[in-house]
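Example record used in the benchmark description.
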Amino acid sequence: MTRGRCKNMLEIRKVIHHLRTGHSNRRIAREVGIDRSIVQQIKQLALEHQWLDGSVGMPTDGEISK
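Model output (structure tokens):
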């Protein structure tokens, strides 16, 4: 996988899932195969939209792509 950018929606969903389970940015970057700065960007987006709340379902592709 190319480091530094996400290739598809599946990778973004994987990052959000890992963030919900409490994994570190470094671990997520290693397991998904993307740069930590991208993980941080996705984390900020997820916090803004409250996607890390485990009591709420995972965001849809449409919600993520906005």
